[in-house]
Design goal:
It is a single chain. The chain has 250 residues and is of the alpha/beta class. It has a single domain, classed as Spore Coat Polysaccharide Biosynthesis Protein SpsA, Chain A (Alpha-Beta Complex), CATH 3.90.550. It has helices spanning 20-25, 46-52, 66-79, 99-107, 131-148, 164-169, 181-191, 214-235; strands at residues 7-13, 34-39, 56-59, 84-87, 113-117, 160-163, 196-200. The chain has a seven-stranded mixed beta sheet with strand order 3-2-1-4-6-5-7, sandwiched between helices. The longest helix has 22 residues, at 214-235.
Length: 250
């Protein structure tokens, strides 16, 4: 714990047997109280590896998708009493060594959400991010910042930390079960006025790191643009979407 706050790491996993041990061993257990892995119908030995590490494991009988996996992650973390939840990919694309920095930013009370940005450090390409992904990332972020009135360096990182209040305040079940879930969730947080901080995070791209193909990348990009437009229309009072209904009783 940190200042009597329970720190929980959630691992949304799919076919992560080759990288799970490396990821797990770098988690700073001097401040982390519990790790929860949600396996989304893996066809490898992810579950067996997780159990060998004594990780609390939740399994989906069938693949629900990246967003569907995260919904279970956050629901389970809240059920076990988490005060701060860090979402860490078990494919080792993001280093667990930054968990303390993210946690302490939340503990400070200055932020409600912390993102690990691959763009802030200016070395995303050196870290192996494909050029087309980098260009798409920058273009989407530019458009989203304009439509949503923000100044974030990146909307598309999968490394995120949240306070309990944040997770209890937004309508996660209104979000997609696919990859656009991340973007919808971040848009909900910004719409609700939650304070978002960013720290620089090195990019890691290698054979075992998860990635989506070109067609799914295009679908994701279109989904991000749609979400940003919906955000703007809701702010202007032209549209009223359940996606942006923030609970105010927390």
């Amino acid at each position: 714990m940190v200042r009597n706050k329970k720190i929980v790491i959630v691992l949304p996993a799919y076919n992560a047997e080759k990288t799970l041990i490396t990821t797990y061993r770098e988690i700073p257990f001097d401040i982390v109280d519990e790790v929860i892995l949600v396996d989304d119908g893996s066809v490898d030995h992810t579950v067996a590896v997780a159990k060998s590490l004594n990780i609390r494991t939740v399994t989906h009988a069938k693949n629900l998708g990246y967003g569907g996996n995260q919904k279970t992650c956050y629901r389970t973390a809240l059920e076990c009493g988490a005060d701060i939840v860090v979402m860490l990919h078990p494919d080792y694309q993001y280093t667990p060594k930054l968990i303390p920095a993210m946690v302490y930013l939340l503990i400070s009370g200055e932020y409600d959400v912390v993102l690990g940005s691959r763009i802030l450090g200016g070395k995303a390409l050196q870290g192996g991010m494909p050029l087309y992904k980098y260009i798409n990332n920058r273009m989407l972020t530019l458009v989203q910042n304009f439509l949503m009135g923000q100044k974030l360096s990146e909307y598309h990182t999968g490394y995120r930390a949240f306070t309990r209040k944040v997770l209890e305040s937004i309508s996660l079940d209104e979000n997609s079960d696919d990859f656009v879930f991340d973007n919808q969730m971040l848009s909900q947080l910004l719409y609700g006025g939650f304070r978002v901080g960013e720290i620089t995070c090195p990019a890691k791209y290698f054979a075992e790191a998860s990635s989506i193909n070109l067609s799914r990348s295009i679908k994701y990009g279109l989904g991000c643009l749609k979400t940003a437009v919906m955000f703007r229309l809701n702010k202007l009072g032209i549209l009223k979407s359940n996606l942006f209904q923030v609970k105010t009783n927390n």
